[in-house]
Structure formats: C-alpha cells, structure tokens
C-alpha cells in the first residue's frame, strides 16, 4: 500500500516574539542615543533591551568597533615602540594570529626570588602585578622593561645598600634583561 502522507511543517519560531524589529524605531532611537554620547548601559535602559542586544545592534549597523579599534591601537603602539602593553593574554594571541612575527610575553615580577634574602617586595615595596606585552622588537622591549623595573626599584629604595643592589641585579638578569641605570636618580633628591 503506497499512500502519500502530508506532513505539517511548523514554520513558527520557538520562543517569545521579539518586542522590536528593525523598522519599529528602535534602531533610529539607538543611533540617536549613541550619537548623543549615551553609554551602552544607558541605551539598554532607555530601549528596555539587554546590553548584549545593544552591542549586537551597534555592531550590526557598523557603529561599534570596540575590539577592532583596541587591536588597531595596540598595533600602532607595536609599530612605534616595538612592543605594547596589553590587558589580557588572549589579546596577544589574537594579534599573533593577525600579524606574523609578534610574540606574547607574560612578565611576573614577583617570581624568581622567593625564599631568598631579598624578594620582589624588598625591591618594589609591594608585589607588582603580572603584566602582558605583545613584542615585535625584542631589544627595545628588554631595554624599556629593565628601565621600568629599575625606576620602580630606585623609587622604593632611593639609597639602596650594596647587597640589595646586587640582589636586584640578579633579579633583573633572571628575566634576561640588562641593567641600564647604575646609580639611583633619586639619591640626591631624598
């Protein structure tokens, strides 16, 4: 027996019906609020939609390019300086994929001297945060980071004793950085 059976196909979408549509005026209100300088959270409250929805709409109409703009700024810094500080490790990995020749570096100033006579707190006063960098020119990066570390060291220790200076030199060399400042620039000020 060969019978054709009609199958009813449900073409309705599951879930609630959206309160908005592209022609309902939400987009024009979104654009006017965004151009007036309102934050995404303020726009979300005004339109009574979620924050991710506002971001999706802004991205859809081409107004919001947050991540891309940040990556462009970082790449400009890399081109000018040879390296750039970034907030998150994942940003560095994205840039590595986009631009060959870049390397993401994590610098943890609090390691390397635990259990020794002098630790990073003796050098800097408190444990400095972990910092992430994207590096193109290794020499420029090492030079500037060693200057940063030495500046922080001498700011906390304007007149360091010889043993502390020697321990700090070993600390800086443990990262592979050269020493650039031999005497404290703060010595005569204090």
Task: Give structural notes.
This protein is mainly α. It has 2 domains: 26-64; 70-174, no CATH class. The chain has 8 helices and 3 strands, in the order H-H-H-H-E-H-E-H-E-H-H. Helix 2 crosses helix 3. The radius of gyration is 27 Å and the shape is elongated. The termini are far apart. The mean pLDDT is 77.
Instruction: Summarize the main sheet.
Output: 3 strands, antiparallel
Q: Helix segment count?
A: 8
What integer value in Å does the Rg equal? 27 Å
Helicity, as a percent range: 40-55%
Q: Order of SSEs, N→C?
A: HHHHEHEHEHH
Mean pLDDT: 77
Low-confidence stretches: none
Number of strands: 3
Structural class, please? mainly alpha
Q: Give the end-to-end Cα distance, rounded to a whole number of Å.
A: 103 Å
Share in β-strands: 5-15%
Put the structure in a nutshell.
With 190 residues, the protein is mostly helical. 48% of the residues lie in helices and 8% in strands.
